[in-house]
Amino acid sequence: MPTLLEPLIFADGTQLPRILPGPMEGVTAGAWLKILTGHRWVDAWWTPFLRISTGVPRRSRLAAWLQPYLATGLPVIAQIMGEDTARLAETARRLHELGAVAVDLNCACPSPVVVRNHAGGERLRHPEWIAKTLQAMKQSVGGAPVGVKLRIGYESPEEFSSCIASAVCEAKPDFVTVHFRTVQERYEPVSNGLERLASARTALPKLVVIGSGDLFTPQDAMAMHEYCGVDAVAPARGMLANPRLLVDITKFFRGEAPRNFTIQEKNQLLGEFVMYAPRHFQLQMAANLLGKNSPEFNAFLRK
Ligand SMILES: Cc1cc2nc3c(=O)[nH]c(=O)nc-3n(C[C@H](O)[C@H](O)[C@H](O)COP(=O)(O)O)c2cc1C
Q1: What percent of the chain is predicted at pLDDT more than 70?
Q2: What is the reported pTM?
Q3: Which of 292, 293, 278 is nearest to 30 (CA)?
Q4: Which H or E run contains 287?
Q5: Which of 20, 237, 288 to mutate to test the pocket of ligand 1 (most atoms within 8 A of CB)?
Q6: Is 211's C-beta closer than 6 angstroms to any atom of ligand 1?
Q7: Mean pLDDT over residues 244-251, rounded?
Q8: What is the 22 CA–ligand 1 centroid distance (Å)?
Q9: Which regions of the chain carry the CATH code 3.20.20.70?
Q10: CATH T-level fold of 8-254
Q11: What is the pLDDT, as a whole number, of residue 1?
């Protein structure tokens, strides 16, 4: 099993780190990109989904959407979501031409609005559509890596080995991210997440599998890697509590002890969010970093 410290290398020569920031709509943008890139706490960016519904967005619109990610100078995975195969494939082509090193198809989002519109996690009910769309995207981007983001099922984890995995294997995407909850479970606690992910790994032989779900500490990442045999990890919410989490995971895999985040460092970081982020996000980060009931958070509120 490769260590998570070496890069993933794809057929066209593209390299991506194996410790990736999970995409987060409403978070992975503006201040977040600027601050975490500035500290070198990430080695690549993964955009949240871009919804493709009524038509293929014009190149100028796609360029404007990608710009903040490309401006970091780091490799960018662009994520798209929708129902129309041809539009998704054409959007993937344009995004790759505009500088995204890889394109990812979201078949995981559990938001009721998205699911009602037959996008995101709802696509898991149509595995043959997933295979067809991944194949069309692969043809369209001419050899650049194409990935897919999945949950373990729509209603039940059994769907994964009974029908989702075979469709995905048929399409041979370059990487597959699996979040171990079903769409209907949304973010409920799940007691057997690693067991589910280990069976998903087994059901996707020869494919690069990126693990997702409850990666809050370096120990969680190590446990997922060792127990499930995933090729890479993509923590998401854990980064909100510890924006340095990916570096801490890297250090842990190297055998180094992660450094404590001192209160001075937290306040300095919050100062950067005050400078660059909207007020609601400043408050969210202050609550995450300081603790909602702490005297430090109360002091932050009074500033
Ligand atoms: C606020 C928020 C927004 C998210 N947006 C996306 C998204 O745009 N695309 C995606 O593939 N996953 C998205 N996710 C899912 C995460 O990338 C990840 O798969 C999920 O949160 C489980 O990992 P975690 O337990 O480490 O957070 C989002 C999660 C959160 C909390």
Answers
A1: 99
A2: 0.98
A3: 278
A4: helix 279-290
A5: 237
A6: no
A7: 97
A8: 6
A9: 8-254
A10: TIM Barrel (3.20.20)
A11: 57
